[in-house]
Amino acid sequence: MKRKHIVLLFVAIGVTWLVLLVSWVSAVPVAADPNRQGISTPRPTLTPTRGPPGPPPRLHGGILDWGKGYMPADVKVILRGEDWEIPVKTDDYGQYRYQSIGNEVAFLNAIVPRERWELKSLTTDLPVRVRVDGELIVNLAFYPENIIPDPIVTIEMVASATEAKQGDEVSFTITVNNNWDDWVNEVIIADYLPEGLSYVSASASQGEVIWDRGLVWATLGAVEAGSSATVTVVTKVEEDAELGQTITNKAGVIYRENVAVQAEASLQVSEKSNNVLPVTGAASLLPVAGVLLAGLLFGVRKLRR
Length: 305
Fold this sequence. Notes:
Blueprint: H1 3-27, E1 59-65, E2 76-80, E3 85-89, E4 95-98, E5 104-110, E6 119-121, E7 126-130, E8 136-137, E9 140-144, E10 148-150, E11 153-159, E12 163-164, E13 169-178, E14 184-192, E15 197-204, E16 208-212, E17 215-223, E18 228-237, E19 246-254, E20 261-269, E21 276-278, E22 285-287, E23 291-292, E24 302-304
Parallel strand pairs: 1-8, 1-9, 12-20
Antiparallel strand pairs: 1-4, 2-3, 2-5, 5-7, 6-9, 10-24, 11-13, 11-23, 13-18, 14-17, 14-19, 15-18, 16-17, 19-20, 21-22
């Protein structure tokens, strides 16, 4: 072999070893230099990255099972309007969510599971007002027939008359009592007027009241421990209300800390009214202060047998 060929062979071998050396050095991890402040070696991502969080559900809340003391999963919840309804089911944490709904006045129901036939729902056809620019939290609950829930928040409804004529005005005073030892927040009273009553006006002891498509929606804000808030709804018995029929008005209270509760009051459409009662021995008439017709229903603090 000629000398020139031998030199070329050694050069090729050297180049090959140099390439292999460079590749090996590049593959060896380099320890971070603690003196190089502000410089870090990127690490691999162990979990997929998530995009920015989406908006909160427009309507959501929990379902409480006061018989077993936990929030059940796979409970059917139905939100319905005049000609539509949307069913959803609770997740493993007993939470339901409605994300893509518009500006709606609707009714919310939690359906008692068939296997828990002994339970009752604390609320039925609870009216809600959902907005695309807001978030509404409504917690619902079931309770066993043999247990009386001890209320955190109670609601009372007082009617100004038990009988009224067509065209008479009848007012309903709705009172929320906070029996808890702490504030309750974002308190809302919702009163969807039944057939036979038309809306005249509404006022509240605090917060704001609006009238929206048949619904009196009073956002009262926070109510401190041991305190109460009141909403007064003035209605008129419609001229075409059937004589002798009983009209039942039902209102609910919604708040963040616990479950929604309801109360109701009824009046009968009559040819006479009892808005005022005669006072014996006097020529004057005194108004009746109000008749508590349905009393309070349940909000839950603890259970008692």
